[in-house]
């Protein structure tokens, strides 16, 4: 971006000051020109799940973030408004909603009646205070031949492992959308080399695990106290999905992980924990979903159309998956190949995905989900067998992956692109129907984003780079050393992905760089340096 470019952060700061000035006579404490913590909006504002005519607007009222009683035991009225200008002179939608204590005084407004492909600004008012200002954008009309789309892919933000300068950089990008692929929070006990990044303690310390609704609420609230994350939320609409750490590491459906210090729970016990995790997730995310408080089920797989340019399928590969094959994360690839009854998505979601792909009018068809889909073999330190696979990824569920690759190929789905995260490193791969027959054309491409702050052991980087040409020649780019996000620019002819990384997560501020750029030409499923 040139020196003359006005950043999204500057626009929002100006909007907040203008909004406060306009209302200063009524609410003298209302002007918040930055995204600093302030009552009753300490967690900021966010928008998400944009359609052509609506978007979800979110905030959560709070005073003492970690108090069991929260803000109040009563509902609180919240006003909201949407405008086309940052000074809030042209209000196009406004209304009132109750922030209820049973949902931690969170607010989800489905602002309908908006125009397609339009930038908007929004804010809330409650308890005689004005919230920070957020910027959002609707999708193009379903019938529109949209020319381009720019979005970022983020995931895996372990609060305790470091700071989030990547989100400061992301907030200053020129984007239409942010796609977050999970591990928004981590469930572990307080333990950090940074004194100001220690997790708030859960109700039961020593389990290395959250368990109660209060535990999950407090952890989500703590993560949103980070000003860089709040700025990124305020700058763009987000489409989010969860992975495992929002509930518990490597869980599968109602099977929990055997943690150090915690015994396996029964399905009924884990269902109670999952209900708390899902409820807190909903309370803190700008997501369009039908929550039933107390239920361990919450459907979040959904799709979004950006005109006729791109269809985005957002999957949930945790809630419905069968248990991982094998005794641990890593095992022989044969364990996944033989997992004929295994599923990452459940049968209903698999059918839903197939229907969405086969009926798509879009130029690009995107599957946004959590774990790496490409076959990925790692050297086995024990030497026998010579390689291992991560069975928590699609390698553990190879027959279902084969069905999806077959669907891409047999039905000639237009330009399939898979997005993933989870592994805290960057992988760009060409996906094949048979990974042992690379002489045949690939059927899709996959872009796996590195983490915002979660750790990938530096000692693993060089061995993986050395092994990929031998074991994984379909992998066109890999890096495990840098933290950051992916930036994607899509038009009818080309998909370009930039690897955006920060120099360090040891400090709150760090320069952002484009470490690599790759592109896919429509109709090829080939990844080439850009």
From TrEMBL:
Domain of life: Bacteria
Matches recorded under InterPro entries: Metallo-depent_PP-like (IPR029052), PhoD-like_MPP (IPR018946), PhoD-like_sf (IPR038607), PhoD_N (IPR032093), Phospholipid_Metab_Enz (IPR052900), TAT_signal (IPR006311)
Family annotation (Pfam families): PhoD, PhoD_N
Residue ranges annotated for the PhoD-like phosphatase metallophosphatase domain, each copy included: 151-498
Residues annotated as domain Phospholipase D N-terminal: 43-138
Entry protein name: Alkaline phosphatase
